[in-house]
Amino acid sequence: MFARRVMNPAVRAAQRTMSTKASSINGKGPFDALYNTLMVSNVTYVSAVVAGAVVFEVVYGKVTNSIWDSLNYGRLYHHIDWSQFKSDDDEEEEE
Fold first, then answer.
1. Each residue of 55-93: pLDDT tens digit?
2. H/E/C letters for each residue in 6-54?
3. What is the distance between the alpha carbons of residues 47 and 1, in angstroms, rounded to a whole number?
4. How far apart are CA 91 and CA 95, in angstroms?
5. DSSP collapsed to 3 states, 45-95
6. At 16, phi and psi to the nearest 5?
């Protein structure tokens, strides 16, 4: 334990460099292009987060509404055929 505390700073830096190089031997990862595109500046990052939230909300809203409509088909107000309830007596009530 004492040896770790006293370890030469150059040795620690070399170990850190070796671990970093070992993780990037296979080349660029799948998210490197995305990271380089969206993390260019703070404005770009915040804009991407806001745009992603809006897109997610629209897609999520449409999916949940379509599930709700399919599970409750025929029970909702906009599914009712109001022409079945129209009677001829409605026109004569104006007197």
1. 999 999 999 999 999 999 988 888 888 888 887 665 555
2. HCCHHHHHHHHHHHHHHHCCCCCCCCHHHHHHHCCCHHHHHHHHHHHHH
3. 47
4. 9
5. HHHHHHHHHHHHHHHHHHHHHHHHHHHCCCCCHHHCCHHHHCCCHHHHCCC
6. -65, -40
